[in-house]
Amino acid sequence: MLTDVLEDFLEENKQKDIYRIISELWINLEFIDYWDANWLYMNIFWKDYIFIKNGLDEKKERFILGHELCHFLLWESGFSMNLDFYSKNIMEQRADEFSSYIFASDKDVKEAYLEFENIPTLSDIFWLPENIIEKRLNKLFKNYNFWY
Question: Is pLDDT larger for residue 76 or for residue 115?
Answer without folding.
Answer: 115
